[in-house]
Request: fold
Amino acid sequence: MRLPCLFLFLIYFKHGTYVSCRFYPSSQLMNSEIHMEHDAYRESLFTNRFIKHQILKSKIGHIQSQACFKVRQLGSSVQQREIYQLTIGTGKIQVMLWSQMHGDEPTGTLAFFDLFNFFAADDQHNAFRKRILDNCTLHFIPMLNPDGAEVHQRRNAQGIDINRDFLKQQSTEARLLAGLQQNIQPEFGFNMHDQDTLWSVSGSKKPATISLLAPPADDEASITPGRLKAMLLTAGIYQVFKKQIPGCIGRWSEEYEARAFGDNFQRLGTSTVLIEAGGYPGDFEKQYARKLTFDILLYALNQISTQQYAKQQLSQYHQIPFNHKELFHLLIKNCQINNDDSNFTADIGLNYTEIIDLEHHKHKKIYTVADFGDLSTWNAYDVFDADGWAMATSLSIGEKPTLKIVDTQGNILVMDQGVMV
Ligand SMILES: [Zn+2]
Reply:
């Protein structure tokens, strides 16, 4: 249903200020217990979110020559791209980590390659990495859905959502993942995803930069022995990382999804943790989320190798706030709206969608009006406080606005049919 239009004419701001909404200082958000420097291990081949199979394959070719890794081709995607399994460590605890079963969700893959660099290094952290590798055997499946990654889409080349294909296993990628779990029978699993940047954390109204979940194993969300371990591990992650990004860690929905892998692996006894990388102010390329993911995985693997996770309290898991949607990409506050019928003040919430040109590695944001009126209970990545001055061409929900805002300090917000110029 189309909502009533607001007729705005010329936007003119008297005291408006364009405020880039930075919730947190840029800081060295290192895990206080492990103090690893992510930059030292960041895989330099991967600089943005649009990682493709060809470059991943070239990096794996290099890794293959390193003695500490066992690399094998697990199988092939529908379009015959290689899907790899990388194994490292000699410990008794089997851990399986897989990423990018949704092709447009690459953050886990990026963090995996940073972890590979970490585990291959020989430096002052040798004792730390040795403890993990002596106690655990880590099985990584980076980029389970290379065909989807190639065109930056969620689904595989058949159009199947792999994470809704556990029961029928009509996709070759789902069969590979299910088969590996069956062969290894891992004690722990890490299921890596990216989530919509519009998810916020209930209570804080900040972006859900990381969402965690110990997926349910049944409709009743029973606390099975395996799920209990995943819940305790998740509780530990939350307790440590909530201090580093306060208000930015949420919990994904606990609704049971009978077709999903995480829920089924939990049911099969693999203590599975879902990690969803979300938005963060200024982190359009997800590089900060990548670093957080790296830190979280190292923390979790250390907890597993030392069995420290078992000392966490279950109540701490239940303290993790759920995800919510109280966030826009851009919020123009306190606009004075003058049209033929009335004069009033309104806030305007705008969200963007991305237009991606994979061939030329370009992408642009198209903003549309998501809501207007009293949006004082909402937050945004960027807030422009119009301070009572506004006017523009007609606006309506879903419209790509054309507007120009200037404040007395000379800050200008110009948008042409939804494109910031
Ligand atoms: Zn996903």
